[in-house]
Structure prediction request, 229 residues.
Amino acid sequence: MKILVVEDDPMLRDGLVDLLAGAGHEVTAVADGAEGARLGREKTFDLVLLDLMLPRLDGIEVCSRLRTVRPMLPILMLTARGAEEDKVKGLRAGADDYVTKPFGARELLARVDALGRRARAAPSEPEIIEADGCVFDLGRCLATRDEREIALTAREVGILRWLYRHRNRSVSRAELLEQVWATVATLQTRTVDMTIAKLRQKIEQDPATPKVIVTVTGVGYAWGAECDA
Prediction:
């Protein structure tokens, strides 16, 4: 597998690289969260090994950012703390599994292999979606309409992914906040509405009568367009 290691401790990082490479994996290693988030979004990896405590961006934020644009990417989180709260935060942010330091080499390799098998067995989601004359390249965070390229943010891609994945039903604002923003909804928030309003300005042929993302009165939003993946 192609594995991204995000770990700031140089000795542990080098040890992980040697261990994984020795098991036949292709490894890329970085020392801070911001670089890990950038690489994870721009390049294709089969798995991310992510430390919880990192400079610039912590592991929770990195995990959340990766999950919005790579929902099927296996993420194994490393934590030096055994507190249940830290494990719960990691899992809620989108981590698939965790290992508490110190850990044994055989245990780590077994968890990596297990996540790899699970990912290979899961059905893949489309990266390119055509809907209402607009082409969405979700992996590159781009949309194209009338030969014009439109840059999309990670949050906007997360919204599109979630609505498309659940296109057979309506999705509430609270659900979008939990799944895309990795936060608990409050009754006062207008974050989802404002983000979708900006997204409609970018991608809809006529934002006043949207066809890709439609409003469901009293519920939230839904994917409204016929589409080809």
Q: What stands out?
A: The two ends are 26 Å apart (CA to CA). The chain has two domains: 2-121, 128-228. The chain has a mean pLDDT of 87. Residues 105-121 form the longest helix (17 residues).
